[in-house]
Amino acid sequence: MHDGTIEMPDPGLAGDYVLAPGIIRVWFADLTRLSAHKAAMRALLSADERERADRFLMERLTDRFILRRGLLRLLLGRCTGRDPAGLVFDYGTHGKPALPGGPAFNLSDSEDSLAIAVAAEGRIGVDIEGLRPIESADGIADRFFHATERAALQALEPEQRDEGFLLAWTRKEAFIKAAGVGLSMPLDRFAVEVTPGAPPALLEIGEDLRGDVGVTADWSLFDCRVLPGAIAAIAAHGTGWTVETRVVGAGFVE
Hints:
Layout: E1 23-30, H1 38-44, H2 47-55, H3 59-80, E2 90-91, E3 97-98, E4 104-110, E5 113-119, E6 124-130, H4 137-144, H5 147-155, H6 161-179, E7 190-192, E8 202-205, H7 210-213, E9 219-224, E10 230-237, E11 242-248
Parallel strand pairs: 1-11
Antiparallel strand pairs: 1-5, 2-3, 4-5, 6-10, 7-8, 9-10
């Protein structure tokens, strides 16, 4: 895994958007750095996306939707050589957007931190969360997490438990999104590694899920810590993947 921070090159360097097999590129962005481009981003959206943006009751949420969807369109446009405003997404049974003909992609945001994962093909998922104290971590884990994860979290030193919880959460969310079977997948029917410092791994999959997602050996998990104060996880079906990271600056939009 390559998890170093690589600054986004000049947008004219098209080679950076050529997606080689076996590579997952994850673009990270701080949406506050892109806020000056909100009008340009909004102009890229489809009519239904603009309508969705306008449904939010808070301007901050509207702005975040516009920026993340606009950035997604810009990025996919450069990866495909197509007009970002002309891209038409399909939405599967579970509402996960896809671009007919590829590439595969997934995105996640937490407040103003955004991660967009892109691969030439395959089943991929990404989740990002801000590193922070989780007051209800024990209660959430007891209610939703796998027994293996609960035991591992309880074995951590108190000062490690918030990080362990967020490692579990991001990895589980990334796996669910990559699996593509819907966010209703029971969180307690599979287990991930939660110990800080241990390699990310999918540890167990319940027998009732294996018909849809296979076994643990069929999957790869990665962590990325690129944006300050945030942690991200990437899940991908298959093995042999390499993850590359990029940071989007304001110049990406210009």
